[in-house]
Amino acid sequence: MNLYKLTFFFSVILFLCCEKDIKKGQSLEKYSSYEEAGFDSEKIHQLSKFIEEKSNTTGLYVLYKGKELFQYGDINDISYIASCRKSILAILMGKYVENKTINLEMTLDELQIDDVEGLLDIEKRAKIDHLATSRSGVFHVASNGGYDEKNILPRGSKEPGSYYVYNNWDFNALGFIFEKLVKNSIYNELEDQIAQPLGFQNWDLKLQKRSGDSKKSKYLAYHMHLSTQDMAKVGQLMLNNGKWNGNQLFSKNWISKIITPVTSKDTVMSRTDNSKKLVPDFGYSYMWWTFDSFRENKIYEGSYSARGFGGQYITIIPKIELVIAHKTNLKKSSGNHTKLSTYFEIVDQIVKSRIY
């Protein structure tokens, strides 16, 4: 066998071995009918009609008590999940906080974190914990848009921990710090900690790429690209308090911590025009949005969401064991968004479709 044939032979063997290692996850079990799950089929039909006529939904996947209840659109399509990336990073931090690789009390100064044109001394007093809850007081411009720019204050005007503002600088710098301490990429950690154990059905490591303007800030956004059904598996993992197929992948204490409000709904919603109550009153935790009621329905008590630009959402409603994952692939929707208010109308219709 000549060198070319030998090289080809080993290349094929290596390819087949790699293919064997990459196992496509199993689909979740389905209900045989809406009525079996305890939902009204006519109301679900009306939901489908609403989605088609009023939203720009490209994928919706609903799990009830861990089984597939409803799907709409292409749930296998992989696309940008926008700020839902931050909620996933919160999960990934868990084991490293608990084994003390990440100390939430460490400051930016201790970590030797700086940025374009430098950070102020007061800003360097911000802790990892402050970044994870968007309360750093670092009002340095972020490398990417999509944050609450109108409530960003003059630099140096607030002590770290004293002021909440949804700020991409915090989240992006946190991603850099995570990788610095863990000595691995966020994307490899996502694959190892979540995608493989949960059996993601559409995972592709090669699609995960950063973006941003490094001239503004050297901390780029760690964007993620997932399918709707894999987002739903993340939601189910959260509902299960970190457990999957009998294995405790993340501690219950950590899952509880990242969905316990740090910033109250009064503070968060004071900066939001929600006079018509089209969305819940949100608080903010460790990169998860929390809420306890919607339209005066206490069934939402203890609920929480990951939220992303354009129509990317994961919502967990523990009281009825419901997980809802929603995507709007902006490339396929001609750039049209699914607004948060439209999405929560979809959520409420699902909740109100329950017979018992």
Plain-language structure description:
- This protein has 356 residues and is an alpha+beta fold.
- It folds into 2 domains: 28-77 and 227-356, Beta-lactamase (3-Layer(aba) Sandwich), CATH 3.40.710.10; 84-201 and 210-223, 3-Layer(aba) Sandwich (Beta-lactamase).
- The protein has 11 helices and 11 strands.
- Strands 2-1-11-10-9-8-7 form a 7-stranded antiparallel sheet, with helices on both faces. It has a two-stranded antiparallel ribbon with strand order 3-4. A two-stranded antiparallel sheet has the order 5-6.
- A hairpin with a 2-residue loop joins strand 1 and strand 2 (67-73).
- Helix 3 packs antiparallel against helix 11 (340-351).
What labels describe this entry?
single chain, 356 residues, alpha+beta, Beta-lactamase, 2 domains, 7-stranded antiparallel beta sheet, two-stranded antiparallel ribbon, 11 helices, 11 strands, globular, disordered N terminus
